[in-house]
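Q: Could you write out the predicted structure for this multi-component system? I'm mainly interested in how the pieces pack against one another.
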Amino acid sequence: MAMPKASQPFPRSEYLRRLTAVKSEMKRREIEVLVVTTPANITYLSGYTSKSGYAPQGLIVSLADEEPTFITRRMDGPAAIHQMFIDRGNVISYPEALIANSERDGYDAIIEFIFDVGLGHKGIGIEAKFLPASTVEKFKSCAAQARIVDCTDAVSWIRGLKSDLEIALMREAAAISDAGMLKANDVIRADVREPDAAAEIIATLVHGANGKPGTDVASFYLCATPRISTCHIRWTEDVFQKGSQINLELSGVRHGYTSPLMRTFSLGKPSDHIRRLHEGEVAGLEAALAAAKTGTTCSDVAVAFNTTLKKHGFEKTSRCGYAVGIDWTEPTASLKEGDVTVLKPNMTFHLMLGNWIDEDVGYVISETFRVTDAGGEPFTKLPRELFVI
Amino acid sequence: MAMPKASQPFPRSEYLRRLTAVKSEMKRREIEVLVVTTPANITYLSGYTSKSGYAPQGLIVSLADEEPTFITRRMDGPAAIHQMFIDRGNVISYPEALIANSERDGYDAIIEFIFDVGLGHKGIGIEAKFLPASTVEKFKSCAAQARIVDCTDAVSWIRGLKSDLEIALMREAAAISDAGMLKANDVIRADVREPDAAAEIIATLVHGANGKPGTDVASFYLCATPRISTCHIRWTEDVFQKGSQINLELSGVRHGYTSPLMRTFSLGKPSDHIRRLHEGEVAGLEAALAAAKTGTTCSDVAVAFNTTLKKHGFEKTSRCGYAVGIDWTEPTASLKEGDVTVLKPNMTFHLMLGNWIDEDVGYVISETFRVTDAGGEPFTKLPRELFVI
């Protein structure tokens, strides 16, 4: 029996719209074929979320074809047939013998395909920054008659601008993020082990919200006293203590789309210092959202935040956010001073106001929002509180 | 207040032993300094498990110094001070301004450090395969007087051979994997949504076993009818049906160390075909474990499995396993015909017998084991059953 198609998170017309935008960029860059290897970009152009990206794979977008072709290892072919909107004939599997093979790998299969369809001497775009140096070299030497063009981030910039259908999925992910934070507020207690709280919160993120389950487990960071100046520790084996502070960062996931959220919890009364930092950050957050209107720049948003925070006597040295969507961070626009990216409606950002000031001072709050003509519109509904338990 | 040190999963002597092995390999390759950038290798040499690897970072091992130096972005410095066994003076943070900066990034900070300590004209090893091509170029051009040597997998091969202390952690991870599978056996039922089962199983992996919590969430794949020929789908929004088959792959994690495990579940009586495949795979598994003695090769183990499975009328085209440890797969030895890696005591493998035969036939079973003089010794205690629910 042949593998059936999964129900798609988007209609075919949505994928074709995205591909039209990519092909238009390909024409601008004077390339005939684009080899998309970044998992998030493959998800964007096909609906595929299976986690096969640790082995060579490529979605080949050609100006000559309406649908792209996916080249993947044999064992991942059925998942591609199942999940991708494309015809099953456009999923090509290479043999398992190319795995853990020092002579030839899946990129050779991709290059051979490009030659087979007669494009081996054309302009070929690759996402060079996310490929091993030896693979870039392979493209250059195997396709010596071709013009190899570095198209790193070309698709990422296009997916920075969300459709209403994508915004709807990000709202679903945000509702799951909210549910995760509310669960945290229920389970973080003195004498509870960090992993036991984490287990319940993560389970909530998978169960989902409003009948929409989480479709993946995104990054999850629970940094509690004495680690409140850290930001990327999962959790430890410690037990929460009375007086502990807990900084939490998490996200629900819907078909690849994330809506990250950060909040700070305090077991007992927080110090005046943290309370003042919280007030400054919330004021900064509101100023940043107000500034995030169509036509302003990423830099303007950062300035609005930084200026407001400074008025409250604090400073944040790291950027105050980044473009967000499939698989969390997009490697494109940053909410930082000097980033002159102009904001357009339905660009989405994680306004990430984690502020790790000193080795014993750290505080986190964030919102994921979309740009509108009236300013940044957050996806989550959680109060902007320092949660005191 | 300064960041305190976390309790270490290993004594200092264990890290120094590992570093001695790395330095000895460095001498063999005639390099004075090694820039370790792969997260799993950094964990191995320092105890660091914080998830900062998406930004440039490097653990600098120098023949001249007992301890390595870690160079990381400002916001990740405190986690390194907390988790790494090294002196806090050996953690160097680069400014946040190097993040999302197209002119200069953290690798420039690493290269500058190497010059600052007077090693800029020496033999410098890098893990080139896992670095962007532009970064390899940067090393070559900035350190033009140095000899840049590709040391990809040098540390990975060293960590392939586990100490008894590491084996103990992998056994703890395996006990968690067992607990996860037993939970699966409890919660997989007809009319239950896949994510609701996944949530409970993942929560179990985080709660842990025998008082030892999971320290991270590893990859998790639940591929149920009609997707039993897929292997890397997390789960879907479907509800389990009477007659469904469920292929599960998961792992507990202890301080980075994994012990992956796969089992197949059937809601009701499995078909004779799947039952026969199960019997062939279990026979092959036992043959592979018996073959995995000190002094034989990876290829011998694969031949033992493949020959046995063939006697049962089946074939598996993908490799039957790979070296395993920190962060799951090690990019070194494979249990496949032709891999002549000689087995040594305390090498560890995931004997991964997932077999996706046709678009509607797939079956999974696996064991994580260590090599001993008497054969492969599995870490988990779970029966080698096709679990019928």
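A: Regarding packing and overall arrangement: Chain B touches chain A through 76 residues (CB under 8 Å).
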